[in-house]
Write a structure and sequence with these properties.
Length: about 400
């Protein structure tokens, strides 16, 4: 049960694509929430005030101050957070804004527009990625290369695939092998791996002959490909699988917790879930078992509590392993902003960390609280509640 509950957000994403609209990377921007009235979408603030009148066919999240996608009568454009059309809907598709430019599509070709909607690089590419570290990958013919923000081709199309730059390097594929280039197009790590990840804090996971290893940005092998799995780093260490057992390594490649578990999850709040002989418990970063394996399944700790399953019911434990909310739910989510989603019968509500039902189960689906509001659903419509359960926006179609 790596996932204890159904994906509550599926319904929300089918309706509008996101639960809230907040500019990424900026805590100063007010969060806005999408609403639907007669199948037209607009935005409200946390108090339920309409900021953007419902008028659009579709709205997704903001990027660099503009709505990433606005579809109106089949065409896409941009709005700002006041709802002003900064670019009339004229594109077939609008993708992510990055470094001041957004990828736009017209007549089946990709190009780039600025925040006024002005096309600065005309649509001419079969595919195009977002700008990262000043460059974007583009597909011409059957080869990938890179352009700068003026549209100048700085690395000619020559690769079978290419990814965005990160930490000065970009992944490229040549004849079904992956390596890395620098911003001049120089191959600094020759294509030799079956799969790779982007560099993160100076390290990239590489796969060769179905085995996982680690390299640094010079191409130096930190860990020879020998593991069955290397997970992403969390709290300074990463899961590895060796001889069908799971353990952990640090960023130097040193094994800090030897592979000994039948399964392991990533560390969160200082603890990681592990499985021993069909039972789940938790270890600390020394590898010490701090909550003995006794549960049928678990999820990671969040806000000091973890969801656990005992037979067919879900409850919550604290970091000592004490059962603070007895198993009684068929569906329960992790705590977020002090409340957790639970399902009782066929309806969803919210409990606090004592297990008290603070918002009675009454919704067909529910999403996590975000800055004090949660999206909730009734048949064919959705709205928003505050932490008392009061509607800030009554469910609408």
């Amino acid at each position: 049960m790596r996932k204890l509950s159904i994906c509550l957000w599926v319904c929300a994403f089918l309706l509008i694509g996101c639960a809230h609209l907040q500019e990424k990377g900026s805590d100063e921007q007010a969060t806005l929430y999408p609403i639907s009235v007669n199948n037209r979408y607009g935005l409200i603030d946390r108090a339920g005030n309409i900021i953007v009148q419902p008028q659009f066919d579709y709205i997704t999240d903001f990027e660099e101050g503009l709505a990433k996608v606005l579809v109106f009568k089949g065409m896409a454009g941009f709005i700002d957070k006041k709802g002003n059309l900064v670019s009339k809907p004229k594109f077939d598709l609008v993708e992510t804004f990055s470094e001041g430019l957004g990828c736009v599509w017209a007549n089946g070709k990709a190009g780039y527009a600025d925040k006024t909607g002005r096309i600065v690089i005309k649509p001419q590419y079969l595919e195009a990625g977002k700008f990262a570290e000043g460059l974007a990958c583009i597909l011409l013919g059957d080869k990938w290369g890179f352009i700068n923000k003026t549209g100048k081709q700085v690395i000619k199309p020559q690769f079978d695939r290419a990814g965005e730059f990160n930490e000065g390097l970009a992944v490229v594929e040549v004849e079904k092998k992956y390596g890395f280039i620098d911003k001049t197009g120089k191959m600094v790590i020759k294509p030799q791996f079956d799969q790779v990840t982007q560099f993160n804090e100076g390290l990239a996971v590489v796969i060769a002959n179905e085995k996982y290893g680690l390299i640094d940005t010079s191409g130096k092998v930190i860990i020879e490909p020998k593991f069955g799995v290397i997970g992403s780093f969390s709290e300074g260490i990463a899961i590895v699988k060796y001889n069908e057992k799971y353990g952990f390594i640090d960023k130097t490649g040193k094994i800090v917790i030897k592979p000994q578990f039948d399964w392991a999850g990533k560390f969160n709040e200082g603890l990681a879930a592990v499985k021993i002989e069909k039972r789940f418990g938790f270890i600390d970063k020394t590898g010490k078992i701090v909550i003995k394996p006794q549960f049928d399944d678990v999820r990671q700790f969040n806000e000091g509590l973890a969801v656990v399953r005992v037979e067919k019911k879900l409850g919550f434990i604290d970091k000592t392993g004490k059962m603070v909310i007895k198993p009684q739910y068929e569906i329960a989510e992790e705590f977020n902003e002090g409340l957790a989603i639970v399902r009782v019968g066929k309806k969803f509500g919210f409990i606090d960390k004592t297990g008290k039902q603070v918002i009675k189960p009454q919704f067909d689906w529910a999403g996590d609280f975000n800055e004090g509001l949660a999206m909730v659903g009734l048949p064919n419509r959705f709205g928003y509640i505050d932490k008392t359960g009061k509607y800030v926006w009554e469910p609408t179609i």
